[in-house]
Amino acid sequence: MAKTKITPKMLKQTKLIQKEIQRVTEQNYKAIAKVFIDFGNDTEKQFAKITMQDLKWDILKSRLDIVLSTNSKRSTKAFVNFLNKLFDFKLKTDKIESVENETVNQYAKGLAKKVTYVTETTKERIALLIDRNKGMNTNDLAKLINNEFGNFSYARSKLIARTETANLFNNANLNTAKEVGMKYKIWIHGVNSPNERPHHKALSGTKLKFDEKFVLNGIECDMPHDNNLPASETVNCSCIVQYSNR
Question: Domain range holding 69?
C-alpha cells in the first residue's frame, strides 16, 4: 500500500471535519441520554409493582431504535451538506438526497442488531446490580436502579453517540465521494485522537484507489468504521478518509 504526504491543507480539513463530527455527536448524545434517563425514571416509579423480568425492556429497545434512527437521518443530512460545502462538490439537491437516502438505508440494515445489543447489555448490568443488593428495600433499590440509568445517560450515551456518529460520517463521506466520482482515498489518523491505536496511526497517509481495501489489524475495510470491523476497532476511533482525483 502506497503512502502519501498528508499536507497542511488536508490536516486543516480534517480538523474541520472532526469539529463537525463533535458538534453532531453532542446533539446525538443528548437524545440518547434522554432515553436512559426517562427509562430510569419510569423504572423507579413501577419497580415496586413488578419483577426484574417484567421491566419494560421492549420499551427501552423501541425508544433506542427511534432515537438512533432519527439521529441517523439528521446526522446524515448535516454531514452530506457539510462535505458538499467543504470540498465544493457542487452536488445538486437530487444528488444530495440520493446520497442521504443511501447512507440512512445502509445504517438501518444494522440498526436492529445494535439496539438489541445495547438493550441486552443494559439488562445484564441492571440484573447484576439487583443481585449485589439483595435485601435492600424496594424503594431504595428502585432509586439505585434509577441512579444507574443516570450513569448510563452520561458514560454509555457518550460512547454510543461518538461511535454511531463517526460511523454515519464515514458512510456519508464514502457515498458522497462515490457520487462525485472520486478515484483515490487516503486514510488519516484522527487529530488529537482520545483513543490512539498504533495500528490505526500506522495506516495514516496510506493512499489507495477508491475500490481497493485498507487492511486494518488483518481485516479488509473500505474506511474507518466499516461494518466489517469489530467494535474493538471502531469504538472511539476518530480516523477518517479523504478522497481525491489524483
Answer: 2-244
